[in-house]
Amino acid sequence: MRALPRLWLCADLVALPHAELLDRVRRALAAGPALVWLRSPPWHPARALLATAIGLRALTHARGALLLVGDRLDVALAADADGVHLTERSLAPADARRFARRALIVSCAVHDEAGVERASGADALLVSPFGDVPGKGPPLGAGGFARLRALAPHTFAVALGGITDPAIARAAGADAVAVRRALSAVDPASECAALLSRAALTDPRVGAIEPPP
Question: Which residues have a Cβ under 8 Å from the Cβ of 142 and sit 6 or more positions away?
Fold first, then answer.
C-alpha cells in the first residue's frame, strides 16, 4: 500500500495514437512514480479504448504505477485498471463504486463549487483549469484553486491545466499536479524527471488516501 503519486500523466488519445502513446508512457514511467490517466473523446470506440487501456495496464503494473480510465467505468473494469476518473457527465462516485463491486480509486473533475459537491465521496479531485488553457474558460489561479480545495480539505486534490510551475500549485494546496505536455515532449523521461524534482513532487509524505492492494 502506498500513497497516490504526486505526478499524474494525462495520456490523451486525441493528442497521440495508440502505439505512440504506449511508447511515450513507457518512457515517462522510467523517470519515477506517477499515475497514468487515460483520456479519450466520447466517440472513441470501446474496443479500441480497451486495447489501449490493457496496454497501459501492463506498463503501469510493470512499473508499480497506477492507471485510471477516464469516464468509461466499463473499460476500466475490463482492463483491470486501478480506478476511474469521472467527468461531469459521468456516474456519481457512489454509483460507480456500487456498480464496480470491487475496490476502486475514484477521481472526479471539478471546476467550481457545484463540482466539489457533485464529487462527494470521491478519493481525488482533479481541479481545473489552474492556469490559462485555450477554450477552457477563465483560469482559477492559485487563489481560486485554494478556495475550491478548502471545500474538501481531506480529499486528495490534483491541479490540472496550464501549470507552468508545479511549486505554485503545491503552494496553493495541491497534493499533486496533472500534466499532458510531458508525454508530448521530445524526451518524456527527462520532462517527467524535471517535474518530479520540482515542488516536492517526490515528497514521501502519505497522501489523503491509499489505493487498493
Answer: 130, 168, 169, 171, 172
Whether the upstream peptide bond of residue 129 has omega within 30° of 0, thus cis, is: yes
Burial of 14 (0-12, 13-18, 19+ CB in 10 A): exposed
Encode 165-196: b = buried (16+ Cβ within 10 Å), e = exposed: ebebbbebbbbbbbbbebbebeebbebbbebb
102-133 pLDDT, tens digit per residue, is 999 999 999 999 999 999 999 999 999 999 98
What is the average pLDDT across 143-167? 95
Structural domains of the chain, with CATH: 7-197 (3.20.20.70)
pTM of the entire predicted model: 0.91
